[in-house]
Amino acid sequence: MISIDGTAPPLAATDNATTPLGTVTVGGVVTAVDFLPAATITGNGGRTLTLVKGTTVIVARLVLAAAVDLDDLAPGMDASPGSDPGPGEVLAAGVYERVPLTGDVRVAPGDLLSWQSTHAGSGLADPGGYVWVGVQ
What we know:
By secondary structure, the protein is mostly beta strands. It is built from no helices and nine strands. A hairpin with a 3-residue loop joins strand 4 and strand 5.
């Protein structure tokens, strides 16, 4: 297994960004994508975190819904790994979140993998964080 990783920058609620993570050196299949937020993601609004191949091919996607409520969680708990956080769930600082694979997971040598963070509606601030991609 090889891994490709990088750090995504923090973004204001209405900002969008694409962060190149790296170029695939050996073809294979993306088997896992993990995101480690630099800070807890909370608030009202929306944000989508997406791993893309090239400029548009979706490999994995995590949709953060409005009305995230920290009061519903025990200390240190986060959304169920691999689920789309919704009301009552949160992405917690220092807790890895498995990003669901939702698209074309095959990669070839030379494919560029990037992390996209896009806001929806009034947006939701993105604290940035560490992104890890496993390829087998």
